[in-house]
Design goal:
- This protein is mainly beta.
- A nine-stranded antiparallel beta sheet has the order 1-2-3-4-5-6-7-8-9, covered by helices on one side.
- Strand 3 and strand 4 form a beta hairpin.
Length: about 130
């Protein structure tokens, strides 16, 4: 965990190998989370900003300078991350679960981590 990180989540594949890690920094004015690769190198960040008093806006920023806007209802877990991923509860019967559909050729690990970050920011915990 890097200096200043308040919470750390490790993401592993089905064999238990480290895929990436997510750091949440709570001491900042703007709520943000950092996604790192297996060796701790920054690969993306998710930022939350208040667009209006009733609506938050989320942005996923990949290195180098690839920004994806999050559109849809993050509170109902029904949204898109740019045009490359779709998060939905549709078809999920389990409580606090959702599906993430990722376009071919995209980094599944990074986009799954971004969806986890958004869920964590919305709910204050990981579902």
């Amino acid at each position: 965990m890097s200096p200043g990180a308040d919470q750390l989540l490790i993401v592993r594949d089905d064999l238990g190998a480290l895929v990436c890690q997510i750091e949440r920094h709570l001491d900042q004015v703007v709520d943000s989370m950092e996604i790192q690769d297996q060796i701790g190198k920054h690969i993306a960040s998710v930022h939350k900003s208040s667009a209006t008093p009733l609506r938050d806006r989320y942005t996923v920023m990949f290195v180098p300078e690839h920004v994806l806007e999050v559109k849809g209802n993050v509170y109902a877990q029904d949204y898109r991350i740019g045009k490359v991923a779709r998060v939905s509860r549709q078809g999920s019967e389990a409580r606090d679960s959702y599906f993430v559909a990722i376009a071919p050729g995209q980094s599944a690990a990074e986009l799954l981590a971004a969806a986890i970050c958004i869920d964590w920011m919305v709910r204050g915990q990981v579902s």
